[in-house]
Amino acid sequence: MNQPTDNAKQPDDAHRVQGEGDYDAARRYDKATTDFAKSGKVDEAARDAKPTSPAEADELRQAEAEGKSHAKGEDPALYRPGKDSSRGS
């Protein structure tokens, strides 16, 4: 009579939050990005990401413009002198 139902949480899952609040995923992402930044491979990755032709560069500019057309605007914190804008949201 007091048996758990199918949707009952397992004890191991009690501390987990999924979706936008997935703390484990956020920690893994933070560690991976920090490790990459410290690896010395950032410049190489930036060179590898550079457009390989004028046509590709134009395509990237168009894609950026399309993305920006859906945005509410730039983050004002990016333009405040003396503020640390290296940390994203």
Could you describe the 3D structure shown?
The chain has 89 residues and is an all-alpha fold. The protein has a domain at 22-71. Helix content is 45%, strand content 0%. The protein is built from 3 helices and no strands. The chain has helices spanning 23-38, 42-49, 54-69. The longest helix is centred in the middle third of the chain and has 16 residues, at 23-38. It is extended, with a radius of gyration of 21 Å.
Largest sheet: none
- Overall average residue pLDDT: 81
Unreliable spans: none
Question: Which structural class best describes the helix and strand composition?
Answer: mainly alpha
What count of helical segments does DSSP give? 3
N-C termini distance: 47 Å
Rg: 21 Å
Proportion of beta-strand residues: under 5%
What is the H/E string?
HHH
Number of DSSP-assigned strands: 0
Oligomer: single chain
**Helix proportion:** 40-55%
Q: Give the overall shape.
A: extended
Short structural summary:
With 89 residues, the chain is mainly alpha-helical. The chain has 3 helices and no strands.
Question: Which SSEs are present, and which pair or pack?
Answer:
Blueprint: H1 23-38, H2 42-49, H3 54-69
Descriptors:
3 helices, mainly alpha, 89 residues, 45% helix, extended
